[in-house]
Structures are given as structure tokens and as C-alpha cells.
Write a structure and sequence with these properties.
Length: about 220
């Protein structure tokens, strides 16, 4: 079955161009031109990935992303004309997996989408219980002490990497490679933002116990 991509974009020409490229690559594309019915559409049709502009009629992409994250962990890319790091990190903090800055190359966007699905396909199905964690990489479910964690794709990737070799210190650069295959110039704060969100979700179960430990000047680790 073809992967289903939802495009939420008010620029008709740009949406049509994205649709053409995605269709050519074998994806099933759907387009909404405003933010009014996005949440209901996602609930009804369960897309495999969402490309969503931040500046939309009726509702903005930030508030939509936040609401979608209340019921779905679908991979979600925010598209923005804003290039400030603070704006991009705000999107990551509320659950976006990645951001795309306008103007952009449609070919690059398609390459990023294909990379996401390729990495998901290459995941081994399950990992054994490690340090209280159990990961199902097929369903993208992560459990801590038997409790299901509500993780985004990016948070899941980082957690899986840290658990792959408990005790090993992973640099921010290494974790950026886990998130993105390409050579984009992305701030280390992107990793810090995802780790911050991940820690917050773990604290709901573990309390004040420090599951993900910071190693000053280097990166992060999980001890057994």
C-alpha cells in the first residue's frame, strides 16, 4: 500500500508541485488549503506523514501540530518562511519532527520523506528490555516500566540510539545523524529540544530519576 501524505498548504501552485513530485515517487497525496478541517481529516484518514505550513488561513500550523500530538505520533514536518532558530525550535518543542524553510527544493522535501520511511523500514522489529525500556520498532512503541510512552518519531529515534549501547555517550552530532541523513546545517539545540521533550515524558513515570544523563560538553547517555 502506498504511503499516504497529507499536504496542508494555502499556496495552490506549491501544493500542486509537491503533489506531482510525490505522486511520481509512488506516494498517495492529499491536499488541504487551510487549517480548518485538518484535525478531523487526520483522525479520519490516518496519514503516514504530514507536511504542514505554519501560516495558514483560519488556524496556524503550530496550534494544529500541538493538537495533533494529543492523539497521534504521525511524522510531521512544519513548513515555514521564518528562518529564525527560535521559531524553528518552537515547532520542535510542541512535537514537530522536522522543519522545512521556504523557499525550498521540492526534490529535497521528497528526499527527506523517503529517508524517513527508509529508516523506519530498516529498523529491526523489536529490542529486548533494556534499563526498564522495551521498544517495538515496527509499531514505534516505546515502554518504560511497562507504561507506553507517547513519543514523536524523532524522540523515538533518539531513545533507540541511546538504548542501543547503554552507558555510551552519544554526542549531539551523532544524534543529529540519527535524526537526519543529509548534511544540513542544523543547530545542536535541535537535539537538546527533543531530549528535553523526551525527559519531560519520562519524568511522568520515573519522577525525579534522571534517566537520560547529560555529559557536559559532549552529549547524552542512558546508564543501565
Amino acid at each position: 500500500m502506498n504511503k499516504k501524505i497529507l499536504i496542508v498548504e494555502d499556496e495552490a501552485k506549491l501544493a500542486a508541485l509537491l503533489t506531482d513530485y510525490l505522486t511520481h515517487e509512488g506516494f498517495e497525496s492529499h491536499w488541504l488549503n487551510d487549517g480548518l478541517n485538518v484535525v478531523e481529516w487526520v483522525k479520519q484518514h490516518a496519514p503516514d506523514l504530514i507536511l504542514m505550513d505554519i501560516m495558514l488561513p483560519h488556524r496556524d500550523g503550530i496550534s494544529l501540530c500541538k493538537e495533533i500530538r494529543e492523539f497521534s505520533n504521525v511524522p510531521l514536518f512544519l513548513i515555514t518562511a521564518r528562518i529564525g532558530e527560535t521559531d524553528r525550535l518552537k515547532g520542535l518543542e510542541i512535537g514537530a519532527d522536522d522543519y522545512i524553510c521556504k523557499p525550498y527544493s521540492v526534490k529535497e522535501v521528497v528526499a527527506r520523506i523517503k529517508a524517513i520511511f527508509r529508516r523506519l523500514q530498516n529498523f529491526s522489529t523489536q529490542l529486548p528490555v533494556v534499563a526498564g525500556f522495551s521498544l517495538d520498532k515496527e509499531k514505534l512503541h516505546a515502554y518504560y516500566e511497562g507504561v507506553l510512552l507517547d513519543l514523536t518519531l524523532s524522540e523515538f529515534r533518539i531513545l533507540a540510539a541511546l538504548l542501543d549501547k547503554c552507558g555510551k555517550v552519544y554526542s549531539r552530532a551523532t544524534l543529529l545523524d540519527v535524526l537526519h541523513e543529509d548534511e544540513r546545517d542544523i543547530s545542536d539545540r535541535t537535539v537538546d529540544t527533543h531530549v528535553k521533550n523526551l525527559r519531560h515524558k519520562l519524568q511522568k513515570i520515573a519522577g525525579e530519576k534522571e534517566i537520560i544523563q547529560s555529559v557536559y560538553g559532549v552529549g547524552y547517555k542512558i546508564e543501565t
